[in-house]
Write a structure and sequence with these properties.
The chain is mostly beta strands. About 5% of the residues lie in helices and about 60% in strands. It has a 22-stranded antiparallel barrel. It has a five-stranded mixed sheet with strand order 10-15-16-13-14. The chain has a four-stranded antiparallel sheet with strand order 3-2-5-6, with no helix packed on it. The termini are far apart. The N terminus is likely disordered.
Length: about 750
């Protein structure tokens, strides 16, 4: 019997090998004939693909001999579908440059694997490597400034929290290379954690502007922001590469530098960088001047290595470490009688290992296993004026994660991703009140219960069905959580919330260049340690614990159109997100502690958020692009019969860019209307002016030159020196200023 089984297995592998081929090729610029690095090459209709190496070359193993079609995509070029010769000849692909990028990107976040954005019912905003290189953003949050569907709030100059469709903090999921940045101590409002990623280590940022709970679990009620870091590429021959980056801004607002070094061969690719940044106090617009204290310093390092263990097996290991020192809370010093209030240190460490294995089976195309370890350390130091007591707090959240993802294509029209993920958070929290005159120190309970924990385990499945003009999507996830908060009550408290969520969507090609789409998505957010156990001053209030909380839930419906036709691309959509059991802070009578009103979190709100979003790009010529985008958001707390908190105003941008022979020039007008629809919590927020936040408009001019190994970028910011503040922020926007950056590659 064993002999027969072995013979059957040998026969099956032999048949699979006989029906498969190896495809190799090179991708070149159709104009200059230069090789193009990091191009996405996919088997059309599957989840299998690769990227070109430093010479523009690529290879795909075990490809069925059925005249497959390769889809080749890269930012700045027109997507190309090319049939492959079944005889296995080397493929030479020549991509034509294109200034129109909207609806032409390949994205990974929506389905956890690379797909064509235009074909899907989800809507994804993409910041490409080229855009990041040209704009040289000061921080990752500021890179998203002006992105349609995303609104950036800055509580402090060292922060930056993305609002995706009116939600932020706990209700918007942040990822780094597909790994959760959110943890059990994420706050319900704006936070600074997205700024713990070095912007020059990033290759692409993807924002899925709709709920993402089926793919990623809790917290993705508003949307998902996935920051993809640079990945070293293999090469046919051993190659050493590197780069040096430097940037400085006027009035001492920024001095930044980063060094990178890499090694590539056929089976090993390693790349890493070390960066130091010194940010001076922010100089705001007309009449506001220098905002002190707002400056801080930052040191970061990262390394990523890939190993080709076999033709079908790939391993990746990576480590990131970023630390910020003395990050001031400007609004607290300016408005709340503090001598100083700051984060010191603010540090994030992430290590992960990823193993990928491809197969040739219908029900198992590939498997990806990711193990991660992450630690976020947040120190807070404050002292009031005329008070000898300094408050020293420190919270440390350690997260361990494990994700197993299997991709399959059971039929030519059916693709599926199925997986299991597990995350475990452990929290250490402490506080010390130090008398600066006597040196006496008193240990107290930290902001969170010490040794609190949060665990989650989930199983999920995502499916895509493609029929000629019609694409159908659907999926489901079941997730169980366990949150333990000691010291909140005698013996501690543990809650075990669980949720089952699902989604369905459709995208239909009315014409090859025009698709209509729609989807219905349910989502949830489990109460976390911050919800259940916070005790202390948060923003402008004093919070007390409550362990009697249920998961937040939402049901999002949206519909719209996508157009990509020659020089014109357009996306227009409307959405309605219904929120139930929303956890909100409720004022406890007229009580106050330490001079702050007392609030308790409760499942007290039924709310909704709805809005309209639009993006358009028009290629006036092969070198000149006009583009615009706008977002309108309306939120209402039905239970309290008041506006939903922190809803962004109508906002958008209009721009014109020109590219030619390595040169580029871009003028961009970013604007926001006034926001006068305020919830009671907004009215109590000292960061929001009485009566609301005034409207504003900012004009920026960016340009530069790229020649072989050298890239020069420069920008004139806020040319009209507008005095402005994004709604809900604790600091104002930068005034008229300029920066210059230099990037040298070798």
């Amino acid at each position: 019997m064993k002999k027969q089984v072995c013979m059957l297995l040998v026969t099956a592998f032999s048949v699979a090998a006989a029906q498969a081929q190896t495809i190799t090729g090179v991708v070149r610029d159709a104009t200059s004939d230069a090789p193009i690095t990091d191009v996405t090459v996919q088997l059309r209709g599957t989840g299998r693909g690769t990227r070109t190496d430093v010479t523009g070359g690529f290879g795909l193993e075990s490809v069925p001999k059925t005249t497959p079609v390769l889809r080749v995509t890269s930012v700045g070029y027109e997507p190309l579908d090319i049939p492959v010769d079944p005889n296995g000849q080397r493929v030479v692909v020549r991509l034509k440059p294109s200034v129109v990028q909207l609806n032409g990107q390949t994205v990974t976040t929506a389905q956890r694997t690379e797909t064509a954005d235009f074909d899907r019912p989800e809507v994804t905003s993409v910041l490409s490597a080229r855009a990041l290189r040209q704009r040289a953003p000061r921080t990752v949050p500021e890179a998203l400034f002006g992105t349609t569907g995303v609104f950036i709030q800055k509580t402090n100059h060292g922060g930056g929290s993305p609002f995706v469709r009116g939600l932020t903090g706990q209700q918007t999921l942040l990822l780094v290379d597909g790994i959760r940045l959110n943890n059990g101590t994420f706050r319900s409002g704006p936070n600074q954690y997205l700024n713990t990623i070095d912007p020059q280590s990033v290759s692409q940022i993807e924002v899925v502007r709709s709920t993402g709970s089926v793919a990623y679990g809790s917290d993705a009620i508003g949307g998902v922001v996935n920051v993809l870091t640079k990945t070293p590429q293999f090469a046919d021959a051993p190659t050493v590469s590197g780069s040096a980056f430097a940037k400085l801004a006027t009035q001492g607002m920024e001095y930044s530098g980063r060094m990178e070094l890499g090694y590539s061969s056929r089976s090993v690719a390693v790349g890493g960088g070390l960066a130091y940044r010194k940010f001076g106090d922010l100089v705001a617009g007309r009449g506001l001047g220098r905002l002190a204290p707002t400056g801080y310093s930052q040191l970061s390092g990262d390394v990523k290595a890939r190993f080709r263990l076999s033709e079908r097996t790939l391993a990746t290991v990576a480590y990131q470490d970023l630390s910020q020192d003395s990050v001031p809370l400007y609004h607290r010093v300016r408005l709340e009688n503090y001598q100083y209030a700051q984060f010191d240190p603010q540090r994030r460490q992430l290590a992960y290992a990823r193993l990928e294995r491809s197969f040739s089976y219908r029900f198992l195309e590939s498997v990806q296993l990711t193990a991660s370890w992450q630690q976020q350390s947040e120190g807070r130091q404050s002292r009031r004026n005329n008070n000898p007591t300094a408050v020293l707090e420190n919270d440390q959240t350690r997260t361990t994660g494990l994700t197993l993802l299997a991709l399959a294509q059971p039929a030519s029209f059916w693709r599926m991703q199925t997986g299991i993920d597990w995350y475990a958070d452990r929290v250490r929290s402490r506080r010390e009140d130090l008398n600066t005159q006597t040196g006496a120190a008193v240990a107290k309970r930290g902001l969170y219960p010490d040794r609190a924990s949060m665990n989650s385990l989930a199983v999920f499945s995502l499916h895509t069905l493609t029929f000629d003009r019609l694409t159908l999507t659907g999926g489901a996830r079941y997730q169980a959580n366990a949150v333990t908060v000691p010291e909140v009550q005698p013996g501690g408290a543990t809650i075990r919330p669980s949720a089952l969520v699902g989604n369905v969507g459709a995208s239909y090609a009315v014409w090859p260049s025009l698709r209509v789409f729609g989807s219905v998505q349910s989502a949830f957010r489990s109460p976390n340690i911050d919800d259940l156990g916070t005790l202390g001053i948060v923003d402008f209030r004093y919070e007390v614990p409550n362990t009697n909380l249920r998961p937040e839930r939402s049901l999002n419906t949206e519909a719209g159109i996508k157009l990509r036709h020659k020089q014109l691309a357009l996306t227009l959509l409307g959405y309605h997100n219904r929120l139930t059991d929303f956890i909100s802070r409720v004022r406890q009578g007229k009580d106050s502690l330490q001079g702050y009103p007392v609030y308790l979190k409760q499942n007290s709100a039924k709310s909704f958020i709805r809005g309209l979003e639009g993006d358009i790009e028009y290629g006036i010529s092969s070198r000149l692009l006009a583009y615009a985008g706008a977002s309108y958001t309306y939120g209402q707390n039905v239970t309290a019969n008041e506006p939903f908190r922190r809803i962004p105003p109508l906002n958008g941008r209009v721009g014109l860019s020109y590219t030619a022979s390595g040169w580029w020039l871009r003028g961009e007008w970013v604007w926001a209307g006034a926001q006068t629809r305020l919830a009671k919590g907004d009215q109590d927020d000292n960061r929001i002016a009485k009566g609301g936040t005034p409207g504003w408009q900012v004009l920026n001019l960016n340009g530069g030159y790229r020649w072989r190994w050298l890239t020069l970028s420069a920008e004139l910011q806020n040319l009209m020196d507008e005095a402005y503040r994004t709604h809900g922020s604790g600091v104002d926007g930068v005034g008229r200023s300029a920066w210059l950056s230099v990037l040298v590659n070798w």
